[in-house]
Amino acid sequence: MTETTTRQNLLELDREGLELFFVDTLGEKRFRAHQVMKWIHHRHVTTFEEMTDLGKALRTKLEAHSEIRVPAIQFDKPSVDGTHKWLVGMDGSNAIETVFIPDKGRGTLCVSSQVGCALNCQFCSTATQGFNRNLSTAEIIGQVWIAARHLGNVPHRQRKLTNVVMMGMGEPLMNFDNVVRAMSVMRDDLGYGLANKRVTLSTAGMVPMIDRLGEESDVSLAVSLHAPNDELRTQLVPLNKKYPIAELMDACVRYALRKKGESVTFEYTLMKGVNDQPEHARELVALLRAFDRAVQMKDAAKINLIPFNPFPGTRYARPDDEVIRAFQKQLNSAGMIAPVRRTRGDDIDAACGQLKGQVADRTRRQAEFNKQLQAQGNADAAA
Ligand code: SF4
């Protein structure tokens, strides 16, 4: 084994883990961990000799036991509309995409959690590539590090990166521990200092893990709904067979009640002739109104309408503009705010649902899907 593989990559650790590493492995004081965390995440430093407020002896010790290894950028492309995409290499044959989307007064980074995805949602570009593996904490927070350095982001001062959405490649709740640890660094003052509600985790509906997320983290929750009834949703999001809409909505109610006063966002990708008809809007209104009643809060459910972004080989299409407007109007008439997400980064394929990367598909998707759900079932039974 080479020295590199035995050294602790400090990007793997949140504040608690870094403190433990300093105390248990280095025999140092906790506050030294805080200094190093700031060097890494505020000043984007990757060598210990640059950490000038640490003594020479500590820097030598750090060098011997640890490293700061950021994933390699393979490709870096700005869009004419200010969107910026990075293709980030995770190992020899795999890469994921990270996208920064600036908007009025805010900058949102869309972060990936897995190389590929096993859930096989029928309208998703990532799903066509299969699944390889979970990303490590370092590979997840490394995406934020790369964007923050590029943007010259300084937490609490020059804040260009204001929001993170875990909506890139992968189902984040299937990589729970690594994602929660990375989100803890995003929200830590010694990390990226983002408020809880500015970090959003988006799930296709892993019901038991939504409950666990509610217990262990305070981030905003978004749910990829895409259909208002089980028959249609099971076609579009196969996970719905295991966790149907009623169970999913109950889990969302429990999450919202636990985070008093926080709304849950439901994402609805509009596909031509599939889920864009007046009856779908009616069902959707009924579903979300029931959610508001259960949470006992007006507008507890937020809805985002996302016109489908076609990609090569898909059988789905974007609805015509008037159909999108009519769908939105029907929701508005029922008293719901239903923004239609603008397509951004079209010229660099950075639009939602177009994150591609390069995935060395390790398994047959269905087998991997079943395996992950089986593991999930075992974890539930043990809980
Ligand atoms: S929509 Fe999300 S959960 Fe579904 S296949 Fe794509 S990346 Fe996976």
Automatic annotation (TrEMBL):
Root EC class: transferase
GO biological process: rRNA base methylation; tRNA methylation
A GO molecular-function descriptor: 4 iron, 4 sulfur cluster binding
Organism classification: Bacteria, Pseudomonadati, Pseudomonadota, Gammaproteobacteria, Lysobacterales
Keywords of the record: 4Fe-4S, Cytoplasm, Disulfide bond, Iron, Iron-sulfur, Metal-binding, Methyltransferase, rRNA processing, S-adenosyl-L-methionine, Transferase, tRNA processing
E.C. no: 2.1.1.192
Catalysis performed (reactions): adenosine(37) in tRNA + 2 reduced [2Fe-2S]-[ferredoxin] + 2 S-adenosyl-L-methionine = 2-methyladenosine(37) in tRNA + 5'-deoxyadenosine + L-methionine + 2 oxidized [2Fe-2S]-[ferredoxin] + S-adenosyl-L-homocysteine; adenosine(2503) in 23S rRNA + 2 reduced [2Fe-2S]-[ferredoxin] + 2 S-adenosyl-L-methionine = 2-methyladenosine(2503) in 23S rRNA + 5'-deoxyadenosine + L-methionine + 2 oxidized [2Fe-2S]-[ferredoxin] + S-adenosyl-L-homocysteine
Residues the record lists as binding S-adenosyl-L-methionine: G170, E171, S202, S224, L225, H226, N309
Name the UniProt record assigns to this protein: Dual-specificity RNA methyltransferase RlmN
Cofactor note: Binds 1 [4Fe-4S] cluster. The cluster is coordinated with 3 cysteines and an exchangeable S-adenosyl-L-methionine.
Domain of life of the native organism: Bacteria
Residues engaged in binding [4Fe-4S] cluster: C117, C121, C124
